[in-house]
Design goal:
mainly beta
Length: about 170
C-alpha cells in the first residue's frame, strides 16, 4: 500500500517575482514501520527581469527571466512488495519431502531512494528571433535500491538494499 499527502504554495508579486514551495509526505508498506514515511519538498523562485523599467527600455530584449529551484523526490520502485520481510515458501525438496524453504532475507533498514535536484537558468528572447536558455542542472540520487547478489552458500540469491549514490 501507499499513502501520500501533498501541499503547494505559489505566490507572485506584480507578475515580476515568483515563489513556489511544495511538500509531500509519502508512506509505502514496502518499508519497515520505522522507515515507512518519507518527506520530500521543493522550492523555486523566478524573476521576470524584462518587467523591470531598466530592461523595458531595451527594445531588443523581448523576454528575460532568471529562475532557480531545488527539490527532493522519493522512489520505492525496483523492490518487491515485501522487501523488508523475511519470507518462506511452502514446497517439496528434491527428495519429495514437504517443508518450508526460506525465500528471502529481511532488511528492516530499507528506506526511500532519494533524488535531489538543483537547477538555475536564464531564459531569453531577443530581437523577436532568437530564443533560448542557459541552464545549469545538478542531480544526485542516493540510497539507490538494488538487489545485491549473495553467495550461493547462503541459499538466497539476493537481498534488497540501499546502496550507491549517483
Amino acid at each position: 500500500r501507499t499513502e501520500g499527502y501533498f501541499g503547494r504554495l505559489n505566490y507572485n508579486f506584480n507578475e515580476k517575482y515568483f515563489v513556489s514551495a511544495s511538500y509531500r509526505r509519502d508512506a509505502s508498506s514496502k518499508f519497515y514501520t520505522k522507515n515507512r514515511w518519507g518527506n520530500f519538498w521543493s522550492v523555486s523562485a523566478a524573476w521576470r527581469m524584462d518587467a523591470e523599467n531598466f530592461i523595458k527600455t531595451q527594445d531588443w530584449i523581448d523576454m528575460l527571466k532568471f529562475r532557480t529551484s531545488y527539490g527532493a523526490i522519493g522512489n520505492d520502485n525496483g523492490i518487491g512488495y515485501y522487501a523488508w520481510q523475511q519470507l518462506y515458501n511452502l514446497g517439496i525438496n528434491n527428495a519429495y519431502e514437504p517443508g518450508f524453504l526460506q525465500a528471502s532475507l529481511s532488511n528492516t533498514d530499507l528506506t526511500w531512494e532519494s533524488n535531489n535536484t538543483f537547477d538555475v537558468a536564464l531564459e531569453f528572447s531577443l530581437i523577436k528571433r532568437v530564443t533560448g536558455s542557459i541552464e545549469f542542472y545538478h542531480r544526485v540520487s542516493s540510497n539507490l535500491l538494488f538487489a545485491v547478489p549473495l553467495p550461493a552458500s547462503s541459499g538466497i540469491t539476493s537481498q534488497d538494499r540501499n546502496i550507491g549514490t549517483m
